[in-house]
Amino acid sequence: MVDLKVLILSWEYPPHIVGEMAWHVRELTKRLKARGLEVYVLTYSPSDERVEVDEGVIVSRVKPPINVTTNIVVWSFIFTTKLQAAAADLIYKLGSFDVVDAHEWITVDAALALKDCFDAPFIYTIHSLEKHRSANSATPLNIAIESIEEIGCREAKRIIVNSEWMRKEVSAKIRGVDEKIKVAPPYTESWVDKVLEAYEG
Description:
Layout: E1 5-9, H1 21-34, E2 38-44, E3 50-54, E4 57-62, H2 72-94, E5 99-103, H3 108-118, E6 122-125, H4 130-133, H5 140-155, E7 158-161, H6 164-173, E8 181-183, H7 191-200
Parallel strand pairs: 1-2, 1-5, 2-4, 5-6, 6-7, 7-8
Antiparallel strand pairs: 3-4
Helix pairs in contact: 2-3
């Protein structure tokens, strides 16, 4: 059993599903809970804000004040402002977290705020890179997202990726972070062990 209190930030969590990340995060939280961790999730709600228990995992869903903006970066900052407030409320009620695990660039801003304000150890889990999602486009929007990804990598205590290929991609894109990267292949027998090595390292 592992005695850690973990806060996971993800803009996807079932039933809000955009891609595979929603199922990835849910399965990870279940496996962490089974190892004895105290697990909390902060995620997006397209409708009402609420708190629920999903197989022992406390899931808080927050709703940004607006849903339509000029671009995804603007929306992400509005969303993460709500994440920061909800996380601060949890910290004031429950005490500090041993780990804040931010999944994808959208939650990086919230993780950075928690690191700065509460000295919360920040783990950055990368599912994909903007250069892959945008086919190497270089619009101002793509550049802004890539900048957030780079800040996340440089500020995080550890970076978790799902494959050796992704480790090489992150290392090539963002110089000087290779030693931080931990490969944790999802849904494998070693998955949680590798994640815990990143959390505890």
